[in-house]
Write the structure tokens for this entry.
Amino acid sequence: MTKLSWVIVLATTFVGSLTGGILGERLFIAGVVHAQKANGVHAEEYLLLDQTGKARAGLGLDSNGEVGLVLTSRDGNRTLALSPDGPVAIKLTDRSGRILWSAP
């Protein structure tokens, strides 16, 4: 391959890469989610696990998009749930799901 051929190949590769990058950014940027803050963390669910890997607290969205915070006792017998979107904002239940205390 001659020196001129190498220059043409390199120039074509450079122009093609540049054009592809610009077009790719313009065409596919709609599907990218940008963070609102540079140091922000974004997720649909946060779980706090104990040393054994058991979830003790969770903050997230349910299937209806309603936000909730759930705290579970160490022995797993009681669960405190906070959900401002539900009919009951605060609910303390036992392991079987029986409501021990609630507040609107």
Summary: Residues 57 and 71 are 4 Å apart (CA to CA). The mean pLDDT is 82.
